[in-house]
Write a structure and sequence with these properties.
By secondary structure, this protein is an alpha/beta fold. It has one domain: Metallo-beta-lactamase, Chain A, CATH 3.60.15.10. It has ten helices and 14 strands. An eight-stranded mixed beta sheet has the order 6-5-4-3-2-1-13-14, covered by helices on one side. A six-stranded mixed beta sheet has the order 7-8-9-10-11-12. Strand 10, helix 8 and strand 11 form a beta-alpha-beta unit. The N terminus and C terminus are likely disordered. The structure holds zinc ion. The site of zinc ion has 6 residues, from helix 3.
């Protein structure tokens, strides 16, 4: 019963959140919605000038993961929010839990530009996305550390990784070469880290430590023990709020030590597997957080709302 009441409360918060955050953001607000796609990553950014950016799109049902989050969650969610056109899709790195869902999105919606790091991809998803992109004349750009993306004159978007000379060490070079970028709107900032791990983190701290201080951190690599929550990274980032994108998995994500590390810095920790889809709306000075609880009809809810 307690859980039921809590879910209802979360839905109520969602309803008020919806009223406060229309699909387009005409009043100079920046909206970041971290979408619950199960095990995978997906965030929708609605810039103050109305442009839309999708950062990854969850899994796509190809390869090891049979769950097609792109078709069952992301595309319906975007349509429900009235998003008809996506200006940019940032594909942080070519792993299926991040770009698999991009395929149904580019197939079903109007997309302006795909943003990629250019790191060699071997997953079938990537080839399929490129085929559709070519057919639909969707542009493809590569970004690297140090690039500034001029997508909204009121926001600074700075790419912190990967470097042009890709990182070849670490446990997973694909993860290590994730696109990491920071979005700043006046006093409020969001740090997106893909699945970047230790080697990338070291280079980022070396080159951009003064850029890391952030309001919101999208925790890297689903909160694994290799996520960028080491002291030498967190000392600079010090996020007020941290979001872990995670679903049912067999890898033990998120790692208990990751959550402890985040909390030891006083960061509020949200997780998509427990909190559902999480939305932040900011005018650049203050921000509001709201939650969209998982649809019980679509997926069983296993978390504890305490
Ligand atoms: Zn991942």
């Amino acid at each position: 019963m307690k859980r039921f009441i809590s879910i209802c409360a979360a839905v109520a918060i969602f309803a008020s959140g919806l009223a406060a955050a229309p699909a387009k953001t005409p009043q100079k607000t920046l909206t970041v919605t971290v979408i619950d796609v199960g095990q995978g990553d997906c965030s929708l950014i609605q810039l103050p000038n109305g442009k839309t950016v999708l950062v990854d799109a969850g899994s796509g049902g190809v390869g090891w993961n049979p769950f097609d989050a792109g078709t069952t969650i992301v595309v319906p969610f975007l349509k429900k929010m009235g998003v008809k056109h996506i200006d940019y899709i940032v594909m942080t790195h070519p792993h299926s839990d991040h770009i698999g869902g991009v395929r149904p999105v580019v197939k079903e919606l109007s997309v302006g530009t795909l943003v990629d790091s250019g790191f060699p991809a071997s997953e079938a998803d990537y080839e399929m996305i490129m085929e559709i992109a070519e057919r639909k004349n969707i542009k493809l750009i590569e970004v690297h550390a140090g690039d500034t993306l001029n997508w909204d004159k009121d926001c600074e978007i700075k790419v912190l990784s990967p470097p042009k000379n890709y990182i070849m060490g670490g446990q997973s070079p694909v993860n290590e070469n994730s696109i990491v970028f920071k979005l700043t709107y006046k006093d409020v900032s969001f740090l997106f880290t893909g699945d970047a791990e230790k080697e990338a983190g070291k280079k980022i701290v070396r080159a951009f430590k003064d850029d890391l201080l952030c309001t919101f951190l999208k925790v890297s690599h689903h909160g694994s023990k290799n996520s960028l929550t080491y002291n030498w990274f967190m000392d600079w980032a010090q996020p007020v709020i941290s979001v872990i994108c995670v679903g049912q998995n067999t890898w033990g994500h998120p790692h208990r030590g990751t959550i402890k590390a985040l909390e030891s810095y006083g960061s509020l920790v949200y997780r998509t597997d427990r909190d559902g889809t999480i939305r932040f709306v900011t005018d650049g000075k203050t921000y509001k957080t709201s939650f969209i609880a998982p649809d019980e009809d679509e997926r069983k809810y296993d978390g504890d709302y305490e």
